[in-house]
User: Fold this.
Amino acid sequence: MRLYVHHRTEYRFSEPQARLVQLLRLTPGSHIGQNVVDWRIDVDCNARLRGGRDGYGNETTMLYVDGPIESISIAVDGSVLTEDKAGMVRGAAETLPPLLYMQSTPLTAADAAIADFAQDIAARGRDPLDRMHRLMGALHERLRFDAGRRDPGRTAIATFGEGRGVRQDAAHVFIAAARAIGLPARYVSGHVYRDDGGALQEAAHGWAEAHLPDYGWIGFDAAHDHCPDARYIRVAIGLDYRDAAPLSGSRLGGGAEELDVGVRIGLSQSQAQG
Assistant:
């Protein structure tokens, strides 16, 4: 598939800001099954952009803006060729060993309830791959999607206890459970094309990857109950959402801020007409 992406982020401040520094993880990398055709980041003010790569291997852009700043809009446009690889990740930048992704974080810590849930699934699974598919399906059934509960600081323990959350919450529970049974797991941020006509989305997507013997890294999307396919664009990875968030940073100035995000994912015109 050839997918196009338009990702817009707007900040509005109640008081002018003296300085804004943002770390952008908005640029996907090319690997087997994903080839970036074109990609650009535009800012509606005088900003300095510096490309780089973080410790996880993600492509990054540092953004610096000097004030006074009352608002800023960051727009990303690009197109990517994708293939269905059944969730398997091959040829991506890997700077860290899989064992590092056994490390727990406050967002992905497992309590006794998550550990027991994971152990029960492990006992019924034939092998690690089967266990991860069972885990994905079980979480899809257990967790209710709740768009109104978007909270970057929400933990896997809270999500599992209440039985509801957003996509990133489901990914955090999957990661916590996978690590509880001895499998390295990590968070992935990216985009997904919805073939139900819902091209406009309120945020980027998020899912998990587990490292399995004989296979390597494989993606699992508990929110949708399937492995990533040609509809997915993989952008950034980390131990949890905070490591892979599309934007993070700081501002120098008082007052409050408003954030508005819009993501549009679609097919190229030739595919849409075909």
Observations:
- The CA atoms of residues 197 and 237 lie 27 Å apart.
- The chain has two domains: 2-81+246-273, 85-244.
- The first strand starts at residue 2 and ends at 24.
